Amino acid sequence: MHYVIVGNGVAGITAAFTLRQRDRHARITVIGGESDYFFSRTALMYAYMDRLTLRDMEPFERKTYAQRSIALVRGWAVDLDAARRLLRLATGQELLYDKLLLATGSVPHRAPWPGLDAVREGLVHFVSLEHLAECERLTPSTRQAVVAGGGLIGLELVECLRHHGVEVDFLVRESWYWPVALAAEEGAMIAEHVRAHGVRIHCGHQVSAATADQAGRISAVTTAAGLRLPCQMLGVCIGVRPAVDWLRKVTTPPAIGRGVETGDSFQTSLPGVYAAGDCAEFVRPDGSRLLEQIWYSAKRQGEQAAAAMLGDAVAYRPPLFFNSAKFFDIEYTTVGDAAMLSRDGVRTFYHRLPGRNASIRMVERHGAVTGFNMLGSRWDHTLLERWIDERKPMDEAMRHLHLAQFDGEFGRARLDGARAAYFQNPPECRR
Amino acid sequence: MTKRGTAQRILHDVKNRGLTAWLLSAILTAFYLVLYFTGLLDAPARAIGLDGKWTLYGLLYTLAVACGGVWVSFKYRHNRYQILRTAVVVFIQSTFAFSIPQLLKFFQQPEYYFSYFWPLKLEYLTPSYIFALPLPYVLYSFVGSLLLAPLLALVFGKRWYCSWVCGCGGLANTFGEPWRHLSNKSGAAWKFEQLAIHTVLGVALALTALLFVSWGFGNGNPQLARAAAQFQFFYGLVVASLLSGVVGVGLYPLGGTRLWCRFFCPMAAMLGLVQKLGRFRIAVKKNMCISCGLCSKYCEMGIDVRAYAQAGTSFTRASCVGCGLCAEVCPRGVLRLENRGALVRIQGH
To answer: Does the ipTM surpass 0.85?
Structure first.
């Protein structure tokens, strides 16, 4: 049995390790185009800020792969022939597989703005090693930068640029930072914190055009509201999409929607070909679609796709949503659904904790707690998840909230103020 | 990527085994060689009114801990564990490990360091030395070394000593802060660590036993007494001088700050074994790790913390000194130091 995995990111490598754990004798080959070894993409920003070397970003010692008899091949896959079970790399190398896993991840959305044709230098993304190298190459000659895109990666890039003393204008298209995940209060707190780090954050602004100087380097960005921002770097962080373009041109293309279409068991439309991670788009019998593009989901999917490849009856269902982030110094933990505050029957409680850049938010719907958004202090998400699963009322969650705290010794956030506020003035139900 | 500017480039160089790091390491090593094996530092010590090179060394050491402590407290000012720990370490160094012994000397008392215990300071259970002291010192030494230190390690982990009290740890966590990330994280280094540190512990135990035997029966057996004395001299030279001083501090800029504590300190070895049985652990939040590697990188003991974090397994490692930096640098709040490992093990969750 020869398992071939295209992509040495977290989904691909997790799948390879899971396969090896369960099958001691199979041949396992992992193809990676971006790097020789699996690295943690989430750590790109720490390399940019000199807190880690590229080698530090590798989660496993290099000898681990040989010890587990996992063959690593450097190269980009360019052709797939499912009839002959053959994969061809850009180098010309051909591999015959018995089962193939596509775990090619994401690529950034390209900027659609007019004027970018003339820009030959200064436009950057921030999701790959290549992007990191480009950012590092441009940083020394950059005094001002504009970062467009009010999400996580945008803010990571902003933090890195500030670290290197670059003046940054941060454009957030929406009326507050990251409305997909944060309510207005939290968005405002993050904006205030980001400003304290010397960032000019412009909410409600989006790029309308870009201008280049005579050498082709970006020189300014104009926003739809008429702001003209001079810059030598433009960071485009407006989301990612599955890296599936190459699959449209192969001998036997799989069914592709936004990503490689798969059933619940990670099987694509091609026999013996599976997909997992950012590039996989689940299509359910009822027609609903699911595309998960975060670190945790990729790891989870890699593990379960491997089980499916080994013949287990897998029906992938994502667990209750959770995620984490860090906005400069403010840590963020979210569990469940805590951003959709405008629906019927929703009660929400928000409290800014005194003495630190921290807040808690709990959301309840029809008498059961559905989500938590916690900023600036640490929380055991597993307990919060359990409360949501158990459909605990918000009152009870508030009473037991201290049990879910995960702050370090001597540093526990005080909840008595939040509790007093909650019970003196209980949040009202939205109708 | 290094920040702009010459100062930043030099800072990067000295923190990352550049030329300046080698230079600094050479200077530190030379300083220790001169200190241990020559009398050259006696003259400058007397010139500033001190009674000899060792008092000068104590003064410099305390200054390094204090200045580094101020810097570290500022750097981690949002973290109360770090602030408290640093304050305690600086306090202990400047009192128990410096001014109190000087005062004792002044009042014609033995120069006793209440912050050190056997087997780190082997003299404190060396019968010919300790039984020559007044009874309170003898009691303190025996109770402290054999009862108090292990008992506290059982409850709080070895960190109570290695990161909150000990001068070696104190210097590493203050003055040594810029080099903490240089510790070797490989599996091979871990194997060497287990071999080396337990060997030193074994030798320290054997030597202590021999010194007791020689103290008891040495009078009628000059050969035994001579052998014990030679063994003691050899241990003092290799372990106390070369490994703890020259290697331990001299190689800060090249090998990281806890070389002595990790590979050679018999006290750390002993407390580490106790720690494995005790309550201390690093709790790991399940499924939340992003494998960035900051925890492993900034672990001064070279523990590959990320391996546990990404697997979602709480753990207790014998070498962990509980400095708390892994939890501090973790951008996702995955790690927490706890004193409830044994409870959790028994209850099974």
So the answer is: yes
